[in-house]
């Protein structure tokens, strides 16, 4: 889960956070740890799937073939498959950056999942953990990866954890893990997929391009959950960045409609969202572009329309100079009720502790589900997977605010000051014209907004013949759309159909 500005609560004491010192001793003990292999059965769509679960560590080597990182993973492979070439394999992770993979693992993809309360706080333990009938194990083998600094993954040799906390080393470490796993497990001729969520989509675009171009490893498909390939469209708390407010506007409309805060709410939201999209990319974009040169009468008209599309007061919009950051919207929409809404899923509502706060100081979605996910995963790790290294499992490395977001597209060019890995994705799709991309987007997600996603997709500058190779599916939920069970069912069906279309074996 957890994207950029939002941090997951760390499960261990602060003193146990990853060190910036070389990690020789701990990585050595981890790399020597034997994987835990257990066997299980699950029923999906009425069919019993027998599978092997492997929880382990892999020593990932750098370009000099030296130990570089000891990376934790959880692999699920179907038993009884005589020829692995007919069985797809999918590598998946969350984002953050700095988040472990437990959210996709226990929320959507793996064989067990935590059941949380829809759009409300999940009560304290004991929690309900069930067989995941919506798991993708009926379609593909699955490898959940924890990036360096998260889970049990640590730097090795002379490397330090902070060496991995930037765009390009992060991409390279995941790509090297994938290549080594494929090689060591004899999966070079299996259909291959990458699935990332949030910052994991930033990563995925780079990983698939890296592996296809540098390692000659072609992929069948890439699945992007809550797309964030161009971070200039996502960060809205950087002074001078006005455009994120534009791309967030239709999401504000959807959220205000959901909470019944629009001044003249329609019965159906779709026509109003179409209006909001047109206004955002037209009149609103033009007004923001004019800046201080915008005539007073035009400014007043824009503010009136913003009031209609957001439910925020005319006075507030005027004082905000027509630009509303998501953290401001989250606290302002329900301020009169002393409530704040979720950042990653704005259907969630929490208590506002400061009635005068400018920005929301926590994410009510995080508060509602984090404890359940943490407890469910750590219990599953020991009880079902029988894996218990003598190390703390780091749920969040809390590095998003110190992460180096620069990205070098080519060896000759200057690095991007703020990563836009959509360029990598477009290159990967042109390099391998058979590559297909599926984008999954929540309608109530303030972190990665649906208009921002649509803009990213439409600005990949793809060859005309390749534009149909990328599709977007929408969900009546937020960033982690799979915590909403009707959306989880659709999530699984959309991914299953994608596998069927792209796996020709």
What does this structure look like?
It contains 13 helices and 14 strands. It is α/β, with parallel strands linked by helices and 505 residues long. It is globular. Strands 1, 2, 3, 4, 7, 8, 9, 10, 13 and 14 form a ten-stranded mixed beta sheet that branches. The chain has two domains: 14-232 and 369-502, Alpha/Beta hydrolase fold, catalytic domain (Rossmann fold, 3-Layer(aba) Sandwich); 236-365, no CATH class. It has helices at 24-32, 102-109, 167-184, 199-214, 243-258, 270-290, 296-310, 314-319, 326-332, 364-383, 422-431, 450-458, 485-502; strands spanning 36-44, 47-61, 67-78, 89-93, 112-115, 128-131, 141-145, 154-155, 192-197, 221-225, 339-341, 349-351, 436-442, 470-475.
Quick gist of this model?
The protein is of the alpha/beta class.
Keywords:
14 strands; single chain; ten-stranded mixed β-sheet; Rossmann fold; alpha/beta; about 500 residues; 2 domains; 13 helices
């Amino acid at each position: 889960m957890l994207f950029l500005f939002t941090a997951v609560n760390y499960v261990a004491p602060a003193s146990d956070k990853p060190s910036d010192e070389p990690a020789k001793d701990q990585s050595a003990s981890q790399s020597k740890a034997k994987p835990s292999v257990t066997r299980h059965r699950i029923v999906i769509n009425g069919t019993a799937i027998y599978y092997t679960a492997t929880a382990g560590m892999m020593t990932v080597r750098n370009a000099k073939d030296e130990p570089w990182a000891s990376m934790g993973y959880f692999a699920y492979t179907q038993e009884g498959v005589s020829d692995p070439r007919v069985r797809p394999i999918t590598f998946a992770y969350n984002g953050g950056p700095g988040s472990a993979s437990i959210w996709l693992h226990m929320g959507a993809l793996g064989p067990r999942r935590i059941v949380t309360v829809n759009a409300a706080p999940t009560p304290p333990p004991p929690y309900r953990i069930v067989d995941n009938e919506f798991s993708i194990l009926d379609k593909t083998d699955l490898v959940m990866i924890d990036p360096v600094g998260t889970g049990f993954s640590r730097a090795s040799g002379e490397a330090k954890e902070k060496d991995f906390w930037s765009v390009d080393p992060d991409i390279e470490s995941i790509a090297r893990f994938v290549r080594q796993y494929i090689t060591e497990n004899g999966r070079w001729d299996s259909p291959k997929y990458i699935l990332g969520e949030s910052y994991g989509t930033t990563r995925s675009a780079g990983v698939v391009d890296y592996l296809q171009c540098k390692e000659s490893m072609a992929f069948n498909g890439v699945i992007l959950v809550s797309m964030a390939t161009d971070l200039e469209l996502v960060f809205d708390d950087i002074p001078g960045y006005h455009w994120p407010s534009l791309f967030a506007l239709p999401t504000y409309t959807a959220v205000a409609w959901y909470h019944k805060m629009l001044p003249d709410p329609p019965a159906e939201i779709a026509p109003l969202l179409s209006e909001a999209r047109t206004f955002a990319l037209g009149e609103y974009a033009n007004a923001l572009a004019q800046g201080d040169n915008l005539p007073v009468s035009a400014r007043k008209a824009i503010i009136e329309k913003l009031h209609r599309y957001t439910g925020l007061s005319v006075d507030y919009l005027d004082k905000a100079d027509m630009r509303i950051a998501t953290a401001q919207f989250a606290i302002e929409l329900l301020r009169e009720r002393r409530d704040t809404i979720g950042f990653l899923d704005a259907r969630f509502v929490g208590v506002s502790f400061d009635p005068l706060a400018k920005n929301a100081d926590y994410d009510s979605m995080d508060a509602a589900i984090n404890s359940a996910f943490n407890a469910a995963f750590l219990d599953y790790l020991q009880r079902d997977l029988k894996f218990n290294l003598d190390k703390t499992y780091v749920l969040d490395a809390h590095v998003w605010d110190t992460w180096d977001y620069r990205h070098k597209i080519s060896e000759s060019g200057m690095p991007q000051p703020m990563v836009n890995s959509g360029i990598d994705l477009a290159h990967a799709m042109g390099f391998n014209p058979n590559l297909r991309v599926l984008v999954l987007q929540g309608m109530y997600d303030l972190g990665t907004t649906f208009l921002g996603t649509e803009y990213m997709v439409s600005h990949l500058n793809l060859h005309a013949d390749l534009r149909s190779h990328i599709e977007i599916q929408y969900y009546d939920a937020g960033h982690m759309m799979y915590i909403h069970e009707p959306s989880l069912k659709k999530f699984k069906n959309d991914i299953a159909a994608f596998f069927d279309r792209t796996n020709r074996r």
